[in-house]
Amino acid sequence: AMNVHMYRHWTVQENIRRLKDRGVEFIDPVEGLLACGYEGQGKLADPADIVEKIQSLLVKARDWSGRTVLVTAGPTREPLDPVRFFSNRSSGKMGYAIAEAAQRRGARVLLITGPTHLRPPAGVEVTAVETAEQMYEAVMSRMEEVDVIIKAAAVADYTAVQVAEQKIKKSSDQLTVQLRRTPDILAEVGRRRRPGQCVVGFAAETEQVDRYAQDKLVRKGADFIVANDVSRSDIGFDADNNRVSVFGKDGFVETWPLMSKRQVADKLLDLVLHQFFKKGQE
Ligand code: C5P
């Protein structure tokens, strides 16, 4: 609560927005006569309203308790020689945001992550991997014990057939590297899943986002595919914000407005809880 001009000032508003993006909840000041004599928005909310909001937040805060969520995040690195690798532009931000949100909402969270610059959220069990093959092994070894698998990782599709033991020298003008397909972890998860397990995949596309996402839903046996357009630099890879469309098995489609990855994470968890586990409807 504060003076209305102070509250409306863009510095304050920008800081509030930043905190909201990080997941901080606000109980906004209300309109009325302010202590300084001005009228406007800046008055402390009614204490009864404050208590009610806190109570509802606390209930929502633990709505994932009793469930285990496995999240994969970040890129993979496919080595070429001891110092070089193939990788991609994934930052891991989306997967980490999901892991953090699920943990905050009471879930047990297993995060299987490729190399990123991010600090793993507190309270989350982290397995660090480098290659697609290692991520595959890690996911397969843990998938039985979880209720939901969210594959936000940008797994490399190809890996070098041969990894040189020594650093490759620039002895010729051209270098040909032979690549082979990596295991499709999501498709294998889709095959091995048990009834009642929810599988969520991501689709990072640069064109025909919707068509490829629909196709992936079927091909990978996922319950939901979260599709985003990575041809834009302000959303998708390495950005803090994302605009996604979510496709569900039974024809469900929703396009969400541009929002922070934290907010996408929470909305996705809401969706899985209500659409898949039917929580709140029983
Ligand atoms: O086929 P595509 O790579 O576009 O599919 C993306 C989805 O599949 C993501 O959820 C990604 O984590 C997953 N994936 C995977 N293993 C691969 C390739 C992609 O699990 N080898």
Q: Would you tell me the overall average pLDDT?
A: 92
Strand content: 15-25%
Output the helix-strand order: HHEEHEEEHEEHEEEHEHEEEEEH
Oligomer: single chain
Question: Mind summarizing the main beta sheet?
Answer: 8 strands, mixed
- Helix count, DSSP H or I runs of 4 or more residues: 8
Query: What's the arrangement of strands in the largest beta sheet?
Result: 7-6-3-8-11-12-14-15
Rg result: 22 Å
Helix content: 25-40%
The secondary structure category is alpha/beta
Q: How many E-type strands? A: 16
- End-to-end Cα distance, whole Å, is 39 Å
Low-confidence stretches: none
Please state the overall shape, judged from the principal axes of the Cα atoms.
globular
* Ligands present: cytidine-5'-monophosphate
Walk me through the topology.
Blueprint: H1 4-8, H2 10-21, E1 30-33, E2 39-43, H3 47-61, E3 68-73, E4 78-81, E5 84-86, H4 93-104, E6 108-113, E7 125-128, H5 132-142, E8 148-151, E9 158-160, E10 179-181, H6 185-192, E11 198-205, H7 209-219, E12 224-229, E13 241-242, E14 244-248, E15 253-255, E16 259-260, H8 261-276
Parallel strand pairs: 3-6, 3-8, 6-7, 8-11, 11-12
Antiparallel strand pairs: 1-2, 4-5, 9-10, 12-14, 13-16, 14-15
Helix pairs in contact: 4-8
